[in-house]
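REQUEST ID: PR-0412
SUBMITTED BY: lab tech R.K.
PRIORITY: routine
TASK: structure prediction, single protein chain
INPUT:
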Amino acid sequence: MDDLTLKDSIAADGAVPVAFSPDGNEMFTAAHLTSEFIDRFSLNATDDTWTSTTKVMTTSSLGGVLILQ
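STATUS: complete
OUTPUT:
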């Protein structure tokens, strides 16, 4: 049986849904009920970590994220 191990965590306001850009180098999280933000993160491939790059204010809390290309 494989056990899950926490590798790292990110600071995101009440993140519920998570979506990735088509190339996998950006991650988007949205809050539901706790705040009205979409957080955008960029992948640092050198050390395999995510860095917060943008915080976008929305008009209400979100329940999901859809990335369209």
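NOTES: The two ends are 38 Å apart (CA to CA).
REVIEWED BY: pending
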